[in-house]
């Protein structure tokens, strides 16, 4: 048997759910949950672009899975399974694959999903990982990016900026003795299971930076937004980095929190529901009629200049 | 707007079906066809590993899609849509993306499916493409690799070896004035739409080489098989290459024909059905009780030594 099959047998077969047919077949066969719509997304991570080549393999696997789970979270969908393709240099140590599979296994248990299928190939380039996530949602209940209205409030889950500052810590540009920021950068927490359907006008996950992702909601809604700088929830570790890092918090990516457009009067009840599920929700601004631009206001309501408006992976 | 969004807008939005929500959202939302099971597979292609870096981009796109469609074909499933991730060097010319999207568009029209979603990222390495195909099949009717029985006949669609010889032509090791072999290598024909359910015991697509893929069916069935060398259908171009290339025809990959285990007495009727759909079907051997090995017999029934038994991508 060729090495590819050994690799699958040693590391990936244990992750396969019933639909994966023991990874023996050309494809998985999945009976969709009756009366539900399917939600599907795919994200790629490249060593040296989306993570540092010496990041532990289990954390890389968890980030890959969680970044995709975050896309389901933004649609208000529940996870079902995933397909995975791994391109790796042929001298990649077996221990790397073992660690990678261990990270996937840990998160499969946490989030209740399983491997459906995939492919492993060699590459002369960096490790390149691609994951397609499959989830499900009640018909017509998927939350969209399009739909924010002037007057809606801007709310966010969790804290903003930890991802960007965690990257800065990884690169040696910032210190954080607690390790919190780097953990948040390496292993984000997808905000699954929140009761968004019917409660929000629009949602997006904060992957490219708060201001850029808010800009996406504005562009699709044909309106603008303003954010109160002092309302943006920061973790103690992000606060400890000091005000010089605040622009990075708003402009950097990798938070994987949810950014929500919430009709006026509905935010507090939603926040209570989210808090019951262990997820803080904070109002940070509002959508405005007029120009499709995002403004940040200081404590006195004056527009602030924020240099870096987000991150493009291309 | 960052360049990634420009790229999606310029080249990929026109390929998106209704479920893709205009590629504006975090994920696609797909209502599964009522009363059907979903069939899903993912395959990766890396420039310099699975295709030659200067192969035309439209052909690369078609091969990527068709290789995945071939996995659906092997399960007897019909295509629905696909998710695509593209990692490319940041200096990849726009014309490459235009050609790539044109190839996808052409095959979407031929095979009746559409783009559901995906991701584009930069990479310091070679272009790395990953595609997840989504199809559907009647409940319980997916054809498996497992299920061949001693006494079943071995049948194949189309002609065998064109893929391997087409690669040899691409590498300058073989000449073929007709261009047929190279076309077969670059743009395979997935054998979708054949009435396999109920007619075959097992199926696999020939991607790693006839003998290796037949070995997979044997391993899963716990039996052996023999192939009559003179019965293996060769194209005129493969025949013209001469007997020295015959081992490559049996051992090389990239044919994307279907290899079928057919219960005795059912082959001719299935072959008639396939011929009506324009696909020749040829009996080339049989499954045998006993040792899990694949033997090739010459015209006098004597075992032949075939050096190269297939291709592993890792």
TrEMBL record, chains A, B:
Keywords: ATP-binding, Kinase, Magnesium, Metal-binding, Nucleotide-binding, Thiamine biosynthesis, Transferase. Mg(2+) 5 binds at residue 208. It holds the Pfam family AIRS_C. Residues 149-291 form the PurM-like C-terminal domain. It catalyses: thiamine phosphate + ATP = thiamine diphosphate + ADP. Its EC number is 2.7.4.16. Gene3D superfamilies: PurM-like C-terminal domain, PurM-like, N-terminal domain. Pathway: Cofactor biosynthesis; thiamine diphosphate biosynthesis; thiamine diphosphate from thiamine phosphate: step 1/1. Coiled coil: none annotated. It comes from the Bacteria. ATP binds at residues 118-119, 145, 207. Substrate binds at residues 50, 254, 311. Belongs to the thiamine-monophosphate kinase family. This is Thiamine-monophosphate kinase. It comes from Acidisoma cellulosilyticum.
């Amino acid at each position: 048997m060729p090495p590819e099959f050994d690799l699958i047998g040693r590391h990936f077969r244990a992750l396969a759910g019933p639909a994966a047919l023991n990874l023996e077949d050309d494809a998985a066969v999945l009976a969709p949950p009756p009366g539900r719509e399917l939600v599907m997304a795919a994200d790629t991570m490249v060593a040296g672009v989306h993570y540092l080549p010496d990041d532990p393999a289990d954390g890389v696997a968890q980030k890959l899975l969680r970044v995709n789970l975050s896309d389901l979270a933004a649609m208000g969908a529940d996870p079902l399974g995933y397909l995975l393709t791994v391109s790796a240099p042929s001298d990649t140590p077996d221990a790397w694959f073992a660690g990678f599979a261990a990270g996937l296994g840990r998160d499969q248990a946490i989030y209740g999903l399983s491997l459906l299928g995939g492919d492993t190939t060699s590459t002369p380039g960096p490790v390149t990982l691609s994951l397609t996530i499959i989830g499900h949602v009640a018909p017509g209940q998927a939350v969209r990016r399009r739909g924010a209205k002037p007057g809606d409030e801007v709310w966010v889950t969790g804290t903003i900026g930890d991802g960007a500052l965690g990257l800065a810590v990884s690169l040696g540009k910032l210190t954080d003795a607690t390790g919190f920021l780097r953990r948040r950068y390496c292993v984000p927490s997808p905000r699954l299971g929140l009761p968004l359907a019917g409660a929000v006008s629009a949602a997006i996950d904060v992957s490219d930076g708060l201001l850029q992702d808010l800009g996406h909601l504005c562009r699709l809604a044909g309106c603008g937004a303003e954010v109160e700088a002092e309302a943006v929830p920061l973790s103690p570790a992000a606060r400890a980095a000091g005000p010089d890092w605040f622009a990075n918090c708003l402009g950097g990516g990798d938070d994987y929190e949810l950014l929500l457009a919430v009709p006026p009067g509905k935010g507090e009840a939603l926040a209570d529901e989210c808090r019951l599920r262990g997820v803080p929700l904070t109002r940070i601004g509002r959508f405005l009629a007029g120009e499709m631009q995002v403004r940040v206001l200081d404590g006195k309501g004056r527009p602030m200049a924020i240099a870096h408006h987000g991150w493009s992976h291309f």
